[in-house]
Design a protein that fits this description.
Blueprint: H1 23-44, E1 54-55, E2 60-65, E3 71-76, E4 80-86, E5 91-98, E6 104-109, E7 115-120, E8 125-129, E9 135-139, E10 147-152, E11 157-162, E12 166-171, E13 179-182, E14 188-193, E15 199-204, E16 209-213, E17 218-222, E18 230-236, E19 241-246, E20 250-255, E21 264-267, E22 273-278, E23 283-288, E24 292-298, E25 301-309, E26 314-319, E27 325-330, E28 334-339, H2 343-352, H3 375-379
Antiparallel strand pairs: 1-28, 2-3, 3-4, 4-5, 6-7, 7-8, 8-9, 10-11, 11-12, 12-13, 14-15, 15-16, 16-17, 18-19, 19-20, 20-21, 22-23, 23-24, 24-25, 26-27, 27-28
Helix pairs in contact: 1-2
Length: about 375
């Protein structure tokens, strides 16, 4: 398989049905699914530009797009953060921030794009001015265990989770955390909140989803224990639905505020899901051990195809401030960009047509992908 070819080679998956009774049902659904297929084919014929790949000398731990301009931060295993400007023509290194003494764990821009937060295995949390590169705030020994995850909330507030299951809420204008709560015996893999920011939901390596009441500074609910590490999360449907990925390839859907038990579950893929990015109110892109970036329409559930691919496992993804690109990083020490601007039109068509003809599903891979054989998408699914 040629992973570097950005020109999609269209492939038609030919299937023959031995069940003649299904033919009439297939005909009923044909017109509706034709609209989706036509939309994908039409998008393939359009120029699909994207920034060139960034290759790093060191292992890449995390990436984060600026929320206000064409800038991406790349955190690496030696403790540095590299800032790149990007366009369809080039990616340009504009600053190297030598911040941490040990491997970075996470990097994230504040919502206004002016401050860059980072954390690392050295247990230090830093806030850096994006324009000047100067350090604004530094919490040494912020946790007893290495910090694993970090999320920005309102301006000046962040939450961090460590390898020992401790979650802390910080106001960076103050020297001490607002609260410190033990939610797990295992690492805190991901954290998420909605616009209201009343609840913080935390996923952990022990397979338990814990929600925290941020206003009351106490645990709100604890889910049943799942038979897998919970690895990543995303919000959909105007933040009313929470999707959680797992190390066994399953996706669990929760209603917001009902975090004790999932309302639905989906078999995503055979391999561990390490990261996810909501693209629209209904579409999610997931990736992980097999290096494939897979797109799935959740409401109704429908596998759409492959957005992009790496040769080695993908650890992290992010979406650009204008929603035009996804960036993904793999164990190859590279960051690739995928143009995903076509998703809006496909999402609208599927919202109108809720029926699904499985025989036609994925006869066309998505325009951003360079994968050659559509059947390779199915090989990673259970």
């Amino acid at each position: 398989m040629d992973y570097e070819n950005d020109n999609l080679n269209e492939t038609i998956v030919k299937e023959e049905s031995t069940n003649q009774d299904k033919e009439s049902d297939d005909d009923d659904d044909e017109d509706e699914d034709d609209e989706v297929v036509k939309a994908i084919k039409a998008e393939k014929n359009k120029p699909r530009d994207h920034p060139p790949t960034i290759t790093s000398e060191d292992f890449i731990v995390d990436i984060s797009f600026s929320p206000i301009k064409n800038l991406i931060a790349i955190a690496n295993i030696v403790g540095d953060i590299l800032l790149y400007e990007y366009s369809n023509d080039e990616t340009k290194l504009v600053n190297t921030l030598e911040l941490h003494l040990k491997a970075c764990r996470q990097v994230e821009f504040e919502n206004n794009g002016l401050t860059l937060y980072s954390t690392a295995k050295d247990k230090v949390i830093m806030a850096t001015d994006v324009e000047t590169g100067k350090l604004k705030t530094c919490y040494e020994n912020a946790h007893d265990e290495p910090v694993y995850s970090l999320k920005c909330l309102d301006e000046g507030k962040i939450v961090t989770g460590d390898d020992g299951g401790i979650v802390k809420l910080w106001d960076v204008r103050k020297p001490d955390p607002i609260f410190s709560l033990k939610i797990s015996e295992d690492y805190v893999s991901d954290m998420i909140s909605n616009e209201v920011q009343k609840y913080l939901v935390c996923a952990a390596g022990d397979g338990v989803l814990t929600s925290i009441d941020l206003k009351a500074s106490k645990i709100y609910s604890t889910s049943e224990e799942y038979n897998a590490e919970l690895t990543c999360m995303g919000l959909f449907r105007s933040e009313t639905k929470l999707l959680v990925g797992s190390s066994k390839g399953k996706l669990y859907l929760f209603n917001w505020k009902e975090f004790g038990l999932h309302s639905d579950e989906y078999i995503g893929q055979k391999h561990s899901i390490e990261c996810m990015i909501p693209i629209t109110q209904n579409v999610v892109v997931t990736s992980g051990e097999d290096g494939m970036l897979r797109a799935t329409h959740m409401f109704p559930q429908r596998h759409l195809g492959i957005v992009g691919q790496h040769r080695l496992p993908v650890e992290c993804m992010d979406i650009s401030h204008d929603g035009q690109y996804i960036a993904s990083s793999s164990h190859d020490n590279d960051v690739k960009f995928w143009n995903i601007s076509y998703f809006e039109s496909i999402d609208k068509i599927i919202n109108v047509n809720h029926k699904q003809n499985k025989k036609k599903d994925l006869i066309n891979n998505l325009p951003s992908s360079s994968i050659k054989n559509a059947s390779d998408f199915f090989s990673g699914l259970v």
